[in-house]
Amino acid sequence: MTPRRFAVPAVTLVLGAALSVQGGAAIAKSLFPTLGPPGVVFLRLAFGSLTLWVIGKPQLRGRSRHDLGLVAALGLTLVCMNLTFYESLNRLPLGIAVTVEFIGPLAVAAAGSRRIVDGVWVLLAGGGIALLADGGGKAVHPTGLLLAAIAGVFWGLYIVIGKRAGQRFTGTTALAPAMALGAVVALPWGIASGGHHFTDPQLLGAGIGVSLLSAALPWSLEMEAMRRMRMTVFGVLMSLEPAIAALSGFVLLGEHLRPRAWVALAMVTVASAGVSRTVTPGMPPDA
Questions:
Q1: How far apart are CA 49 and CA 45, in angstroms?
Q2: Helices 32-56 and 65-89 sit at what angle, rounded to 10 degrees?
């Protein structure tokens, strides 16, 4: 009875996180002309950490070095993931940036399996990425594709480290200090990028909204979901991220993708779901 009771809420958490983070990314992109990607990243991490700290009231005193190391690793991973992704988003449509970035979660899922069929899924995803690299959408920038791929590496690390942190910490007690560390690391680039615009109340309000939609809310939902479900299920649900991102970019930013880009997006989504469903069973369940 217990697994069934928790299954539906966990699924809802992951889907809600995806909708929130992609909507927040669309809003964040509209702030790039004034604050720049580093400025938005700083606001996202700073206000997100503050919100989670008030809610969770984490206590790090008495924690082992291993636990503190997990928090530090999670914070550094978050700031690197955000900086590279937002820089890619400054050069690419939202749907394309997320599709390329998704190689991170795909690699995490594929690493859990030794089945031959998973090689087919990886080739399918690689074909989708190749379509994008060959002009899958309007204003496709090679540097943007590279940055999105690097962000994907950090996204994969976030899933692995976040899973371990979720088993050692409750609620947001790991995420709040991790985001605070990320904000400190991003501060110099944020100040250099945003400058005097940080004194604009409207921009600060928009930054707070981005932090809630793109960081505090979805990451909290994901951390809770990762505690309640196996990584296989989590990976399948996360495979919807590229499609949600493309729809968010279309609705909120008016970004139109070529048919080739939609085909590439579908290939990556199907491959990700396929890999996640065929990874080796018996993976230890969450706490």
A1: 6
A2: 150
CA proximity to 82, closest of 30, 28, 124, 35: 28
CB of 242 within 8 A of CB of 98? Answer: yes
Q: Other CB atoms closer than 10 Å to residue 284's CB: what's the count?
A: 8
216 SS3 class: helix
From the list 72, 75, 54, the residue with the least C-alpha distance to 64 is 72
Note if the pTM is more than 0.90.
Answer: no
Token pair for 185? 């690391």
φ/ψ region of 282 (left if φ > 0, alpha if ψ in -120 to 50, else beta) reads left
**What residue type is 238 in one-letter code?**
M
**pLDDT tens-digit readout, 106-142:** 777 667 666 667 667 777 877 887 777 655 445 577 8
pLDDT digits (tens, 9 = 90+) for 159-210: 888 888 877 877 668 888 898 999 999 999 999 998 888 888 888 888 888 8
pLDDT tens for residues 32-53?
Answer: 999 999 999 998 898 888 888 8
Residue 280: CB atoms within 10 A of its CB come to 12
**Neighbouring residues of 195: CB distance < 8 A, sequence distance ≥ 6:** none
